[in-house]
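Predict the holo structure. Ligand: iron/sulfur cluster.
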Amino acid sequence: MEITTTRQNPLIDPSLHVWHGEVAAYLFLGGLVAGLMILLGAYRLWKPERPRSQALARLPWLVPVLLSVGMLFLWLDLANRLNAFRFYLILRPETPMSWGAWILLAVYPVSLAFAWNESPAAWRRRALARWPRLAALARCSEARQRPLAFATMNLGILLAVYTGILLGAFAARPLWNSPLLGPLFLASGLSSGAAFILLFGLEDEERRLASIVDMGVIGAELGLIALWLLGLAVGGLAAQSAARLFFGGPYTAAFWTLVVALGLVIPFIGEAIEYKRRATPGRATALFVLAGGFALRWIVVFAGQAAGWVGQVAGK
Amino acid sequence: MKGPRYALAVDTRTCVGCAACVIGCKEENAVPLGTTRDWIVTETSGVYPALATQFRSERCNHCADAPCVRACPTGSSHYGPGGTVQVNPAKCSGCKACITACPYGARYVDPRTHTVDKCSFCLHRLASGKRTTSCQEICPTASILFGDLSDPESEISRALARRTWTVLLPDAGTEPQHYFLK
Ligand code: SF4
Ligand code: SF4
């Protein structure tokens, strides 16, 4: 069967690459922020009394900062940027992008309050001396340290899962159209978050915790990727042709080397060796994980748009 | 369902793929260069020498269960009069979720307004009292039928009752309201 369309130019056909690198960058940063929120919340909840490293007291401030960078990318991808406020005039429960927009908004107050609570006491005193008006707000936030840590963690989970569901809900894009994308992006976000934390000067015990988490989620990611591709390969025609993008198609080399080998398998082995030798986890493996997480979002965003239903015709 | 249910049908037996409908639409709706609201698909099937070619004039299917409407975070893409699917440019953020969600590639970003656009079933013509879409009006072989499916006596209802027809990608679950008469 041969199909020709007289649409003006396949290069500008809207089915090809509607979303660009900005969306991939946002999804990566969103996942990274979500992973940070989950882990930082967890450190607070599970080791509340132990003395903590400087980094853990400061890192929470990066949550709203990195999220803002991500949202900036998202905003840059909008064709009609002046209408961005329209996201916040309505909540559409059946639209993942709509509740995603509201989740992003909710992250700000919660993560700011959490970051305040985690900050060193001396620093907070100085800040209050300079801005005494914040005192009531600060007291209110400090009185809720555990609930805020809990909220930060759960918002992080929501944020990570939503980025996957956002893509997974598109029935028109067979590569994305899988319920496994939610958990896969959660795992990859957690792993990016753990790797990011490992870049900073943590106490040894904290590092080891981050690296255990990282190894666990890398294992989960490998399993989820296998299940996701298996689901496509045994699916219908559209799903099978989407799977071919990674098995012989144009994204094969990039996916298997950047995402699977460099981003998952090699750092997993590196971390396992370090763990066994009880060595301090190095920064190199963490950088590999971060690059792999970025490659995963990038390739999934672009490959997903290269696969579609367009061109297939209803049965005779 | 109360009220009209607008639909469009293309007779694939008489369509010759001349693309007059594409030109007519461009003219009527001032469709910017590089984008299209309707297009022609030529499909050749069979094994040589028993080949068959079908020409189809295609456009937005005005799906009854439209994934583009479901994907739109601002409510800009919505169901309009007669069950058609419309875009309100004043609400559109240009997030392109609807373009990604449409399995038919029916939508584009208008480079002038930076908002999404597509076939509207020429609602503005209906509103001004005309009974045809511009693609229908210009078609030299009268292969395009447009009308109200809730009226069993309309030309399109009678054609769909009399002839066999198909829709595009029925498995996508979108309930297209754009029919192809065989
Ligand atoms: S064809 Fe595409 S744009 Fe038109 S209603 Fe269906 S999903 Fe929406
Ligand atoms: S591009 Fe416009 S019409 Fe399409 S989903 Fe986004 S806001 Fe809605």
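The beta strands of chain B are 6-11, 38-47, 50-59, 77-79, 85-87, 108-109, 116-117, 144-148, 165-166, 178-181. The pocket of iron/sulfur cluster (ligand 2) is lined by residues B 71-72, 74, 76-77, 87, 92-98, 116 (CB under 6 Å).
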